């Protein structure tokens, strides 16, 4: 609201300054350029100038508020052109009528040519051309102003609609991420109950803490990076409980020192893929997880081996929902501020992810 008010005040000030400059040009600069000696201009001259400014102001705002929005922008171009031409004729004869009313031609002739007789009906052609030029400038400026205001209004509406669309899409993506995350985690705990009941209980405690993060922090647009890192560590610890000695974890994660923020649960899908595809109950496997924070930039890397999963399992049917959603969230929340590369390592059954985010 203060921003809108300040813009309106600025627009009002620009209008005032613009008309003030016009008044200075018409009322002061023109007379000062004439050689008048000690004589003063007749009163009719000042009446004419004030009346001319008033008419130009009326034409300017009438065209800007009615002519352009209700005729030109409605596609009635020829009607608008005819009205502009008709307005020029009305403007011209209105000025002539007013001049005759205040006896402007006679007073100005007596002032500049006191020794010559006044001939009624004779007009000064350059003066008429100048007045019509003022009319044209007034129409041109008011039309430009109205078109710019229309463009700004349309742009504001477009940005608001785009913002609403992005918020709606992000809400939809979050709604997909939460069930996806809990589905995988609960599956892991279910598997753990067949191996170690005590570990399964510990896992449930960790999951409850993570649920609080998801329920509260995930509803916000951003969260502290330190909270996101704690959440990641809890998730990794939860995954460790179901790993065998055949799995080697290499984890290196910097401690966030500044009050950086990040979109919640942005990194989780990459970790899920590591533990979903990178471990095997029969073969040795290794998962590398690295996160560095340099200034305002976050660097996150993972590398894991690729093991086939059961095509009948729920994980196989998900078809990478979490990763696809994360890519979309990154493009919406960090446009031109992130770089994501992932894929299979050449000549190796390994998969890598390199993510860089500018948190500034």
UniProtKB/TrEMBL annotation:
A GO cellular component annotation in the UniProt record: membrane
Upper lineage: Bacteria, Pseudomonadati, Bacteroidota, Cytophagia, Cytophagales
Protein name per Swiss-Prot or TrEMBL: Histidine kinase
Entries under Pfam families matching the protein: His_kinase (PF06580)
Species for this entry: Algoriphagus ornithinivorans
Keywords, sorted A to Z: Kinase, Membrane, Transferase, Transmembrane, Transmembrane helix
Membrane-spanning segments: 12-34, 46-66, 78-98, 129-148
Single GO term (MF): phosphorelay sensor kinase activity
Residue span, Signal transduction histidine kinase internal region domain: 169-246
Keyword Signal: no
